[in-house]
Amino acid sequence: MHLADVLGRYVESIPDGQGIQLLEEIRLTVAGTAAATAVNLAHLGEDVSTVGVVGDDALGTFITTRMNDAGVTTNHLRVDRGLPTSATMLPIRRDGSRPALHVVSTNGRLDHQDLQAELLDEVSLVHLGGTCLLPGIDGRPSVDFLRTAKERGLTVAMDFIPSRTSLDRDRQAIEPCLPFVDYLLPSDDDAYYIADAGGDRQKAIDYYLESGVQNVLITMGAQGVSISNTRECDVRLSAFDVEVVDTTGCGDAFSAGFISALLRSADVREAAEFALACGSLMATGLGSDAVDLTRTQVETFRTAKSRLLL
After folding, report:
1. What structural domains and CATH numbers belong to the chain?
2. If 0-12 CB within 10 Å is exposed, 13-18 middle and 19+ buried, where does residue 199 land?
3. Could you read off the pLDDT of 37-61 as tens digits, one per residue?
4. If residue 289 lies in a helix (H) or strand (E), which one and from where to where?
């Protein structure tokens, strides 16, 4: 999933008619569960390549240029001349939360032909981001690709964004993938929705583990992260105490930090600790690229910042 975010802060309300509300800041950023995660991984020093579709327009050029500048390999970022680049408008509230106004557009053009087995050559880990909002690869194409990745002995991580138009449809996209997922990295709202768990974290954990996921890490904002697998259940790690500006991109920063730590031989708890620092640090600015996550910066942040109480 690759898109551009247009973010404005702080939005108290949408003016009636032709009214105007003056904001403190508006930004254009690279975003999406693949694009933002890839940029953060590159900043953390990892060798990362991304697969997706953008339009032949200013936003597509912006995304590709910014990703290349960050050090992401974009050879497999295809340009589609028939649709504009996927984008989201995000009015940021003062508590850092934000509704999303999203157009799928070119993300819907990603299809099974983009997921060739050759992509897995010389790769150690595959991260699938954006399931449910990638109609061209949701379901069988994703399942086949992840199955091939596991047959080759690769590690698989996954995040998803429910469309919320139909629980059955979203589950049809997600559930067949789960037996091939080593690390599932959803937010609490998304995790509970797909599991039909209400606010019951244990019910959600059971749903994903019983569906075949090896490790479930549910990110919970200021409440940190919950880690579960076949050996331990709902192990909680606390978030860092920061002044939240915007929560956009925090989940992608968490995913990048977690994957980067895994690639450097961390165990799941060590990786989650590093990932929490990445996610918490990203919340201190506006947008998915508010902070360039270098390892030095993240480690300095981890040392200096206190943790929130569980």
Report:
1. 3-14+23-304 (3.40.1190.20)
2. exposed
3. 999 999 999 999 999 999 999 999 9
4. none
Q: Which two tokens stand for residue 308?
A: 């929130």
Number of Cβ within a 10 Å radius of residue 47: 13
Q: Are strands 155-160 and 183-184 parallel, antiparallel or unpaired?
A: parallel
- What is the residue-wise DSSP string for 29-59? EEESTTHHHHHHHHHTT---EEEEEEESSHH
Work out the widest C-alpha separation in the chain, in whole angstroms: 57
What is the DSSP secondary-structure string of 136-149? TTTTHHHHHHHHHH
Query: With b meaning 16 or more CB within 10 Å and e meaning fewer, what string describes 132-154?
Result: bbbbbbbbebbbbbbebbeeeeb
**pLDDT score of 98 more than 90:** no
Pairing mode, if any, of strands 87-92 and 101-103?
antiparallel
Q: What is the pLDDT of residues 149-200, one digit of tens each?
A: 999 999 999 999 999 999 999 999 999 999 999 999 999 999 999 999 999 9
Residue pair 140/171 in contact by the 8 Å Cβ criterion: no
Tokens of 277: 């620092």
Q: Which of 120, 122, 83 is nearest to 2 (CA)?
A: 83
Q: Supply the pTM of this predicted model.
A: 0.94
Q: Per-residue pLDDT tens for 104-131? A: 899 999 999 999 999 999 999 999 999 9
Beta bridge partners of 91: 8
Query: What single letter denotes the amino acid at residue 248?
Result: T
